């Protein structure tokens, strides 16, 4: 609680105590009035002051003004009726202030909680100077400086590990709880926490350009992009207050006049009282506060789960997603080639791999690299001689005195060997040993471990259509799609085709269903921009992705797509609950007030109660762990 | 030209009123108030004198909500 809130609390307590004590004194007349004005003024003087200021500035529909009119009106009625019942006016003021205090406290508290959740901002960087560690402002560290990160400290700036080994906790960034082990030469991302060893890091970026600064900037500004629900509420709030006030005025004047015309008593006091009840419910605060709070909590909770949402509007769009299109490479698959199988070997699989790796040892092609990686042993170039690259075919070489041919079936026919065709999808490397077929190696892009589950989760979440875009050949694409359970595949697409296909899908989809495109953010920026909502994954540190996408998944896991959708749905559900609940209760109170069933007590109770419940409900959007 | 300023405002509806008031200020193309982060993002019109515009923004905000503050 800050100073302002503490003072308010003390005022409320004093006024409440007086409210309990004063009715014990059997006094009447002017003395009673003076005594009862004490708690009223203690709890409400600032409202009255603001009301006067508001009138001077022409702000008639100011909450303070309306509260002042309602309470002063109630007091005036009590004086006029000589009932001496001032408690109602005081109670209205008291509860109004309690509501305001609660609101300000709850908002402050949740703001603090949520920013703490995103507390990845490093406070300092360690630099070694004359053998001693010195703490400096990360803003002052220039690119290329060696900084030292001790166990338990946050990595302040992006860089490359110069020396030291450790494991990193990246959960604040990615939501992934498994520590990541790193050593010399590893790239390191700011915002992660060094857990075990001392690390020396050469910085590659300035603090302002580092991952941690970018993420903080993105999340903190996310709630500035307002959603349609927020716009709706602020527009509603703008007309609600004047409309209720007008209603109050009509209620105070028209029924008594009609009554007079009919020859009955006017009953002014009764109708004015009902009108004042209206004014008590005229403040739209419960509505206005709960919506941005829900979005704020939703965005905060999502970022804690490793899903960065760039704005409340995107959270809203995400919740309406019905079509999810995945880019294949780097999204559903790892985007790296790996040896996936070795078939029909006449010698041992290891031997085939060894020969192939050696034959390709001079090449830097990704396929050569994946062969070398799968072989894993030392590559002794001295064993290889006479390397000849056959363009569009492969490589022939002499290894340990054996003649080796290694490449596609065209090459096999060239060396007069008949290759055995392979049924697996991917790139096939045939190997011939001393003029005889020795088997083939299948190299293909590897599907991520969670891809199939991710598609299943999406379907479970009620996504109508899951599609995949890929530049791969039809057979490869169809195989992966059927393995993963994807409905529609668009294969053999050039990058420009992807935009065109997206537009086609956008044209044919139902209007309310939103289309999400999930890409790796490197080469599909145009599609990310074109889709209703662009989701980039594996984007830690990739500037292009953060620029182009609306939602960034901090780790490579496609499962997060379904999670992001569920988070957004929960958040929007809460938003709608609050809208319906708050408007509903207010309208009900207005109706009961107009009929004379609800008095001011009930009105203010309902008003403050709705706000408390709406705020508590909004904070629920923060809890997304088990979604 | 966009710039973000820290603000202080107690209630969400007041923040909306500030947003509307600041948006109508001369020299301001658009304004967005983030109640949760207590920030105001102002997009200025080309060639507007920023400090003069912000003084006017603060004045206009204070008119609709006396209890607010814009830190220029």
Outline the fold blueprint:
The complex is a heterodimer of chains A (627) and B (72).
Chain A: H1 3-21, H2 29-56, H3 63-81, H4 87-117, E1 125-129, E2 132-136, E3 146-149, E4 159-163, E5 166-169, H5 171-174, E6 180-182, E7 187-188, E8 193-194, E9 199-203, H6 211-222, H7 228-261, H8 268-280, H9 285-304, E10 307-309, H10 312-319, E11 321-327, H11 328-332, E12 333-343, H12 349-359, H13 366-375, E13 384-390, E14 394-399, E15 402-407, H14 409-414, E16 427-433, E17 436-447, H15 451-460, E18 465-469, H16 474-484, E19 488-490, H17 495-508, E20 514-519, H18 525-530, E21 533-537, H19 543-548, E22 551-553, H20 559-595, H21 600-619
Parallel strand pairs in A: 11-18, 11-20, 18-19, 20-21, 21-22
Antiparallel strand pairs in A: 1-2, 1-3, 3-9, 4-7, 4-9, 5-6, 5-8, 10-22, 12-17, 13-14, 14-15, 15-16, 16-17
Helix pairs in contact in A: 1-2, 1-4, 2-3, 2-4, 3-4, 3-8, 4-9, 4-21, 7-8, 7-9, 8-20, 8-21, 9-20, 9-21, 10-20, 12-13, 15-20, 20-21
Chain B: E1 2-8, H1 12-23, E2 28-34, E3 39-44, H2 50-64, E4 69-71
Antiparallel strand pairs in B: 1-3, 1-4, 2-3
Helix pairs in contact in B: 1-2
């Amino acid at each position: 609680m800050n100073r302002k809130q503490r003072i308010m609390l003390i005022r409320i307590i004093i006024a409440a105590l007086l409210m309990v004590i004063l009715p014990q004194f059997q006094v009447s007349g002017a003395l009673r009035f003076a005594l009862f004005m004490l708690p009223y003024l203690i709890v409400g003087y600032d409202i009255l002051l603001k009301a006067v200021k508001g009138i001077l500035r022409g702000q008639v529909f100011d909450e303070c003004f309306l509260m002042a009119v309602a309470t002063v009106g109630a007091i005036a009625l009590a004086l006029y009726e000589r009932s001496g019942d001032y408690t109602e006016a005081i109670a209205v003021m008291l509860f109004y202030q309690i509501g305001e205090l609660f609101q300000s406290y709850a908002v402050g508290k949740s703001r603090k909680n949520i920013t703490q959740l995103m507390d990845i901002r490093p406070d300092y960087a360690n630099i070694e100077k004359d053998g001693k560690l010195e703490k400096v402002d990360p803003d002052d560290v220039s690119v290329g400086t060696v900084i030292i990160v001790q166990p338990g400290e946050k990595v302040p700036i992006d860089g490359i590990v110069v020396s030291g080994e450790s494991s990193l906790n990246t959960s604040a960034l990615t939501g992934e709880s498994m520590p990541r082990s790193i050593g010399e030469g590893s790239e390191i991302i700011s915002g992660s926490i060094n857990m075990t060893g001392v690390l020396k890091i050469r910085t590659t970026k300035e603090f302002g350009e580092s991952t941690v600064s970018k993420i903080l900037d993105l999340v903190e500004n996310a709630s500035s992009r307002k959603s349609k629900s927020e716009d709706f509420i602020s527009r509603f709030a703008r007309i609600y207050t004047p409309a209720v006030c007008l209603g109050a005025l009509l209620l105070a004047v028209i029924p008594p006049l009609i009554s007079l015309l009919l020859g009955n008593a006017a009953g002014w006091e009764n109708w004015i009282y009902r009108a004042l009840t209206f004014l008590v419910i005229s403040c739209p605060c419960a509505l206005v506060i709960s919506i941005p709070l829900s979005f704020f909590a939703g965005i905060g909770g999502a970022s804690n789960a490793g899903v960065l949402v760039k704005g409340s509007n995107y959270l809203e769009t995400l919740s309406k997603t019905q079509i999810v299109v995945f880019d294949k490479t780097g999204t559903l698959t790892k985007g790296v080639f790996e040896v996936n199988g070795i078939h029909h070997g006449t010698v041992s699989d290891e031997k085939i791999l060894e020969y192939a790796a050696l034959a390709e040892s001079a090449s830097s092609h990704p396929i050569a690299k994946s062969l070398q990686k799968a072989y894993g042993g030392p590559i002794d170039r001295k064993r290889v001689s006479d390397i000849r690259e056959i363009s569009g075919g492969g490589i022939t070489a002499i290894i340990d005195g054996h003649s080796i041919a290694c490449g596609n079936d065209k090459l096999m026919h060239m060396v007069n060997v008949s290759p055995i065709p392979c049924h697996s999808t991917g790139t096939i490397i045939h190997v011939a040993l001393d003029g005889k077929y020795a088997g083939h190696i299948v190299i293909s892009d590897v599907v991520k471990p969670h891809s199939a589950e991710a598609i299943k989760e999406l379907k479970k979440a009620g996504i109508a259509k899951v599609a995949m875009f890929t530049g791969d050949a039809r057979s490869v694409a169809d195989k992966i799609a059927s393995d993963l359970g994807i409905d529609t595949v668009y294969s053999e697409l050039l990058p420009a085709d992807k935009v065109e296909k997206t537009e086609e899908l956008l044209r044919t989809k139902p209007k309310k269903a939103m289309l999400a495109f999930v890409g790796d953010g490197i080469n599909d920026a145009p599609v990310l921009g074109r889709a209703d909502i662009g989701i980039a994954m594996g984007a830690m540190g990739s500037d292009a992705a953060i620029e182009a996408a609306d939602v960034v998944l901090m780790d490579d896991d496609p499962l997060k797509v379904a999670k992001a959708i569920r988070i957004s749905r929960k958040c929007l559900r809460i938003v709608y609950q609050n809208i319906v609940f708050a408007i509903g209760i207010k309208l009900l109170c207005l109706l009961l007030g107009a009929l004379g069933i609800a008095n001011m007590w009930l009105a203010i109770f309902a008003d403050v109660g709705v706000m408390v419940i709406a705020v508590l409900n909004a904070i629920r959007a923060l809890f997304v762990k088990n979604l | 030209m966009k710039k973000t300023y820290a603000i202080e405002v107690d209630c969400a509806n007041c923040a909306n009123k500030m947003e509307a008031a600041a948006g109508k200020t001369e020299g301001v193309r658009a304004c967005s108030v983030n109640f949760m982060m207590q920030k105001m993002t102002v997009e200025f019109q080309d060639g507007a004198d920023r400090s003069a515009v912000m003084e006017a923004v603060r004045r206009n905000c204070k008119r609709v909500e006396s209890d607010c503050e814009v830190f220029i």
